[in-house]
Amino acid sequence: MNLDDAGRAAADVLPQDVWDFLSGGSGAEMTVAANRVAFDDVFIVPRVLTDVSSCGTSATLLGSRVTMPVGVAPMAYQQLFHPDGELATARAAEVAGVPYEASILSSYSLEEITAVCTQTWFQVYWLRDRILMGDLIDRAENLGCKALALTVDAPRMGRRLRDIRNGFALPSHVAAGNFPRPWTDTARRGTAGSSSSMMHTGEAFDPALTWKDVAWLRGQTHLPIVLKGVLHPDDAVQAIEIGVDAITVSNHGGRQLDGAIGSLTALPAVAAAVEGRAQVLMDSGIRSGADVLKALALGASGVFIGRPVLWGLAADGQRGVDRVLQVMQTELEDALALSGCVDVRRARHLDVLPRSSSAPVSPVQRGSR
């Protein structure tokens, strides 16, 4: 009936170490909690006496029309959760008519994923191997990907204590489908008291990523570029000046800096700084259609959901993901109607009331969108 139901179903079928890999964050998981607190502390001020006999959820993200302003966030190694992995989630996104953001660390290749989803975006981390980076960009373009998303909040992986305590390693049947199988050998070598996936990404990812590299990337591709992992307004402005097409306000689901600001908390200031010059997206902590409405009201053009998709995948493969996305659309339509919005465009003009405030925050105060 809601996304939490999918979470309970997933917890019943997944091994404990895989559940921890999915659910956990870095450090004491303060930021994981902060993401939900941020949504719970925001209240919508509904409008009334509007004809909401028909409410439209469709939107435009990076020039493509989608059935709702919701996409599937990039998540690695989905064969951990179901044998069909990314193919199931990508097919579900295609059926739902929403973007699917394929991770560079997908357990199926980009060729296989784009064959089943026409609205594929490709997410990359910055690799130490610049030639390999160029090859991946070329593949994304040639396969018809709609956007290239560069994750910039992971110069190194956060210390995910659940994985370290579990000695988490990829099982033998899971590998990174976009690379030759030996590329992920380190991630499959389990060691007590350490995370093999953390060791592998330390070898593969380049912590020297700077704005110069983002400018280089802009010159290498005609695809729209999304900068994922931005929380500070000044970083968003600098990205736009380089030519980035969209910003994803994200703290990596609480899996990087523990104690980082909640994504929804950071969203209004970033949206105000961007001033409509690029689309502002967000992820981290979204669990309902009402959460989507809150993000739209605070300045987002769209949101990407992560863990709930994997809950559905673990519970019932593509049918589970289908159901998660169906519930999300039903809840969003319901939230629009009950707040007096005939479409998602109107939602961006709703007033919101922080729990600790006695006065609504108006669209003017949040900045023009």
Automatic annotation (TrEMBL):
Glyoxylate binds at residues 125, 160, 252, 255. FMN binds at residues 74-76, 103, 123, 151, 228, 250, 283-287, 306-307. The active site is at residue 252. Keywords: Flavoprotein, FMN, Oxidoreductase. Its cofactor is FMN. Residues 1-357 form the FMN hydroxy acid dehydrogenase domain. One of its GO terms (molecular function) is FMN binding. PANTHER family: 2-HYDROXYACID OXIDASE 1 (PTHR10578:SF107), S -2-HYDROXY-ACID OXIDASE-RELATED (PTHR10578). Belongs to the FMN-dependent alpha-hydroxy acid dehydrogenase family. This is Alpha-hydroxy-acid oxidizing enzyme. The lineage of its organism: Bacteria, Bacillati, Actinomycetota, Actinomycetes, Kitasatosporales.
